[in-house]
Amino acid sequence: MTDADATSLSDAPTASAPDEAARPDPLSTASRDIAEVPAVEIISTAALHLMSAAAVNLGLAEDLPEHKDLDEARSLIDSLAGLLDAAAPSLGHHHAAPLRDGLRSLQLAFREASSIQDEPGQGPGEKYTGPVFPKASAR
Fold first, then answer.
1. 110 phi/psi in degrees, rounded to 5
2. How far is CA 33 from each of CA 16, 30, 41, rounded to the nearest angstrom?
3. CA nearest neighbour of 110 among 62, 75, 63, 66
């Protein structure tokens, strides 16, 4: 085969080219879809994913109660706290309040699950939220 033959073969249209042109680009479609989603929904969804993963790593998942990885939980809670701290002005109270409540619950669950207690203000996410303590029980 000569160089000319190789060039003519590589320049020949492939059989799948018309099919590929007819299909929309999945990345383009995904970009268009994501452009229609408000930022508050994307931020809330990311926060819920972080919360869920932290809960699983704290042993709070019903289907995986024996699983505990406090190092992973700490990283996830820190990330969640940072996200909420940065996004709070955009979220507004209506959206931020339940997410902050969930964060606080995870921070308290972390304290309960940890055999070595962090100093106040040193627990996961506390550099963003301040120290987290259980509320005194009403008697």
1. -65, -45
2. 27, 5, 13
3. 75
CA distance 124 to 106: 9
N- to C-terminal Cα separation, the chain: 92
Residue range 82-91, pLDDT digits in tens: 999 999 999 9
pTM: 0.76
Q: Burial letters for 83-100: b for 16+ Cβ neighbours within 10 Å, e otherwise? A: bbbebbeebeeebbeebb
Angstrom distance (rounded) from CA 10 to CA 79: 50
CA separation (Å) from 135 to 11, 24, 96, 104? 73, 55, 20, 11
Residue showing tokens 């590929």: 20
